[in-house]
Every structure is written in structure tokens, then in C-alpha cells.
Amino acid sequence: MDNSVDYKRIWLSTRAHLESDRYKYRSSGKRSKSRWSLFSKLLRIFVFLLKVFNLYKRGLKNAKNIHINEFTLEYPDLPEKFDGYKILHLSDLHLDTLPGIEDIIIEKIQNLKYDLCVMTGDYRKNTLGSFMQIINPLKKIVSAKKPNDGIIAIFGNHDTYLMLKQFEKMGITFLANENITINKGSDKITITGLDDPFYYYTDQAVNALEENIKGFKIALVHTSELYKTAEQNAYNLYLCGHTHGGQICLPGGIPIITHQFEGKKFYKGLWNFNNMIGYTSQGCGTSGIPIRFYSQSEITLFTLKRNLE
Ligand SMILES: [Fe+2]
Q1: For labelling, which of 26, 94, 232, 251 has a CA lying 20 to 30 Å from the CA of 308?
Q2: Tens digit of each residue's pLDDT (9 = 90 or more) over 48-62
Q3: Which CATH architecture has domain 7-306?
Q4: CA 6, 182, 268, 138 torsion-angle sign
């Protein structure tokens, strides 16, 4: 990373401009943001129907039932001192969709052991408007457990650049199309955190992945859609969220909507793309309405393992 470049300042001015724009920006071009208001209206009708058919409470119970999913990921090129390194992955907290969800999350992570926590965006319910309502719940989570290597966060399409100051006050390391190195003696891993490519796609995000960084690399992106660029640039692990695993699915976990336009097959769970391992979290929280059907609220714990075979 070029230390003479102020990545945060570049990101801040770009994100501020894009947030005020009436379009959302994707790698395929720009689209109107107005669809979200139509979606909200449809959700209200859906909630009414769920209540009529007595299904709302069941959906709410499903949303509050956060699972801890644990995975061991094996790599021949993992630096020796990172053998056994544990990463907690939280995504799509949407803390104001379901007030009190922070207490469920804290109870779940309290007894887990991990070296680093990463958060892959979407902290509030809506894509626009106020955000202070999520700050105290987030503060509670952040102060409940402080891993040795800290907490690294990126933003999703529901977040605003105005949150940055609050995140920094909490001691969260926020990455804006830039990378950070975690060192253990002479060994290191690099973590690259990008801005959301679903609403706020920019070349700066792609450029950050294309930086010539050697060694073991992890990409944090809100959505799976930059997987090809990450793999082409020798990333070992790609962590994302955004889809909520469909949130409201048909029996068998078949999603109706995943809000993706690229990498649709990577809508949940563990996946591989050539030599890169990816994981799409189903998210801790819910967006729109606090219910789930045939999808799982999740907290994910990864253990990195060095396997020379
Ligand atoms: Fe989300």
C-alpha cells in the first residue's frame, strides 16, 4: 500500500458524493435507487399477510436464533505463526431491525476464543436516514469482547460514510479500499477491506485488490461479486455477506431474492473459486423485517490451519 495516499480521504469524498446521488453504482453500470421504496411497500403487505396467517411470530423466533458456524480452513501457504489463527466473522448486523439483537450476539460470542473479529457491513436497517440508533448497540458488542488483533470493519450498502467517526471512536479499524498487515514475528497476513460494490462500486475498490501484495491475503467485501478479481490477484480467503442467505426462503432453503447481480451461486456458506476459498455469511441480523424462514442467522468462526500436504 502506498503510504503517501490518503485512502480514507479519497473514499470519504467519493462515498459522500455517491450517497447523495439518486443512482446506485455497480460494475455493470448505474441503476435507480428508487426500487428500495417499492420493496419496502411490498414488505409491509407481506408482514400483514404473515400476521393474518399467524406466521410472523415463528419468523421472528427464527431470526433471533443465531447459530455459531465453525470452519477449519486449510492452506499450504499459511505462514507458520498463523497456524491455528481464529477469525470471528460478523456480517449484516442490521441492529435496529430487531432491537435487543446485540444482547443475543454478545451472549453467543462471550465464550468464543478468537484472535481477530471482522465485520463485513450493513449495521443499520435502512439504506438512508438516521444511524445513531445503531451506535450504542454496536458499542455494546465491541466493548463486550476485544480480541488481541482487534476488530476490522467495512461498510455495506445500508451504511453511510457519516458512521466512520463513530466507528473510529469505538476503536474499530475501518478499511476503505485499503489494506492492513497483521504481524506475528517475521510472519504476516494482509487484510484488504473494500467499500460496498452493490451500491457504491468504484475503481478504487478494484485497484485495492490489484495491489501487488505478496503473501497470505484475505479480502473483506460486503458482497461476493468481486470474487473473480480477488482470485486473479491471489487472495486466499474472501469473506462477505449481504444476501442473508435469502432471509425468507422456500422450504429447503431455496432463496426467493438474494440481491446479487454477480456470483449468484455464492449466495451462502463456504465456496471455492479456483484456489480461493470464499465464505458468504447469512448474517446475524435481518433487513426490512425481523423474520427468517428456511435461512439461518449466523456468527461464523474460522480457524486457519497450515497444511503442507
Ligand atoms: Fe444486509
Answers
A1: 232
A2: 898 888 899 999 999
A3: 4-Layer Sandwich (3.60)
A4: negative
Give me the phi and psi of 270, to 5 degrees please: -85, 135
State the Cα–Cα distance between residues 282 and 298, nearest whole angstrom. Answer: 6
In the chain, what are the domain boundaries? 7-306
Give the cell for residue 307. Answer: 497444511
User: Residue 98: helix, strand or coil by DSSP?
Assistant: coil
CA of 295 to the centre of ligand 1 (A): 14
H or E stretch covering 18: helix 7-20
C-alpha cell at 308: 503442507
Q: How many CB atoms lie within 10 A of CB 62?
A: 19
Cell 498487515 belongs to residue: 181
Q: Measured in angstroms, how far is the CA atom of residue 272 from the centroid of ligand 1?
A: 22
The pTM for the full model equals 0.94
Cβ pair 208, 233 in contact under 8 A = no
What separation in Å is there between the alpha carbon of 72 and the centre of ligand 1?
25
Residue 193 host element (H or E): strand 187-193
Closest Cα to residue 28, out of 194, 226, 232?
Answer: 226
Å from CA of 5 to ligand 1 middle: 30
Q: What percent of the chain has pLDDT over 70?
A: 97
* Cα(72)–Cα(83) distance, integer angstroms: 11
Distance CA 74, CA 25 (A): 35
Q: How is 116-140 classified by DSSP, letter by letter?
A: EEEEES--SSSSSS--GGGHHHHHH
Separation between Cα atoms, residue 175 and residue 255, nearest integer Å:
30
For residue 181, the cross-strand partners are 190
Residue length of the chain: 309
pLDDT in tens, 22-35: 888 888 788 877 66
